[in-house]
Write a structure and sequence with these properties.
8% strand, 7 strands, five-stranded mixed β-sheet, 382 residues, alpha+beta, Glutaredoxin, two-stranded antiparallel ribbon
């Protein structure tokens, strides 16, 4: 196996866009256009989003809009538009930053003039040998046996340097935005309106808030676990301005994620406060518990959920009876079916007032936009 393929295996499971947030440099984008397109497929979209009433195509003289499509097709179209938008917005952020930095350095940035690249405008932080070795050790189980650090070092350095540069760019863009010197004016695509059944689901914030945020998540999903801190921060930031609803979506209903989702439902039967206590403990369950040594996996999963309930301080006897009931299993099946019909196919998935947010990274801005919209038009709920 070539070094390029080996490092591809090493980095294949790493979300390239998670830490970067913005493009690294125009040079990298130009030289790797095809690779960048595929790598960005998890998050991208362009200005000029398709509205619900804009014609998409015409057949035999009749025009069809997004509203004429099935719910599934509407969601697929929105996801593709969102991915393209995010990729384009990332590039625009980088270019805007280059303009701002060049102006600060008294460089002429007149219309049509070539901008200096980021490596010229800001001093890139170097990735250390220790950082690269630590990353290699953490991920070498994914590599073919016998692969050495020296074999993949050049590609690894390039990858990690790109990640580091991307993080620097993200931080610089944030600084300029906070100072009001930089604003991204591209319009994000508008998600199709869906009908979410939120009856009985646990929530935080104000029950009567006009902005309802829904998170569909799975307790064993690493991205969901990563999102916990940011969502808690949002709930505190917006307070009574929003109603934050948790909708569990078990990716493996017959596995541990299903047992934990049933456990959360049973905890919720004891009260909203009890649900959130269990919710916290469920996210703390070790991921290896999904692959128990015991041949009786169903009992092992139930025991793990029961342990989370005990740690939550809720009524364990009532919980245990509920967990084993057919009612809890049917509740999870029903929840999954409803969320799937609303366009949930992965976790975490967020909705703001019944419209899916294209990327979790855009959740805060989506909430802010909706609050601003309702402030300007108090009579409009959707």
């Amino acid at each position: 196996m070539s070094n390029a393929k080996v490092v591809g295996v090493l980095l294949g499971g790493v979300c390239l866009g998670a830490a970067v947030g913005v493009a690294v440099t125009s040079t990298v984008l130009k030289n790797n256009a095809s690779r960048t397109t595929s790598a960005s497929s998890g998050s991208c979209s362009v200005d000029g989003a398709t509205s619900q009433t804009a014609a998409l195509f015409e057949v035999d003289g009749k025009q069809y809009t997004r509203e004429d499509l099935s719910t599934e097709m509407q969601d697929q179209l929105f996801q593709m538009q969102s991915q393209l938008h995010d990729a384009s917005a990332n590039l625009v952020k980088e270019v805007a930053l280059r303009f701002a930095l060049a102006k600060d350095k008294k460089i002429d940035v007149g219309s049509g003039k070539e901008l200096p690249d980021l490596k010229t405008l800001m001093e890139p932080k170097k990735v250390t040998e220790a950082d690269m070795k630590a990353f290699f050790e953490e991920n070498k189980k994914s590599l073919p046996p016998g692969t050495t650090f020296e074999q993949v070092r050049p590609q690894l350095e390039q990858f990690m340097q790109g990640q580091q540069m991307g993080e620097q760019v993200r931080q610089e863009v944030a600084k300029f935005e906070e100072k009001g010197r930089l604003k991204i004016l591209m319009k994000a695509p508008v998600a199709p309106l869906v009908n979410l059944d939120l009856a009985g689901l646990p929530f935080k914030g104000s029950e009567t808030a006009k902005v309802v945020v829904v998170e569909a998540s799975d307790y064993l999903c690493t991205h969901c676990r990563d999102a916990v801190e940011s969502t808690e921060k949002l709930v505190k930031e917006y307070g009574s301005k929003i109603k934050f609803v948790q909708a569990n979506f078990a990716l493996r209903p017959t596995g541990l994620s299903g047992a934990l989702a049933r456990g959360a439902w049973c905890a919720g039967k004891q009260g909203n406060e009890q649900f959130w206590k269990f919710h916290e403990k469920a996210f703390a369950v070790p991921l290896e518990a999904a692959n128990p040594i015991s041949p009786n996996t169903e009992k092992a999963y139930a025991d793990t959920a029961l342990k989370a309930a005990q740690d939550s301080g809720i009524d364990v006897k009532v919980f245990e009876t509920c967990l084993a009931s057919e009612e809890s299993k049917k509740a999870i099946e029903s929840a999954n079916a409803k969320l799937t019909a609303a366009g949930v196919s992965a976790t975490p998935t967020f909705f703001v007032n019944n419209r899916k947010v294209g990327s979790p990274a855009n959740l805060s801005s989506a909430i802010a936009v909706e609050l601003e919209r309702l402030s300007a038009n108090p009579s409009k709920a959707n």
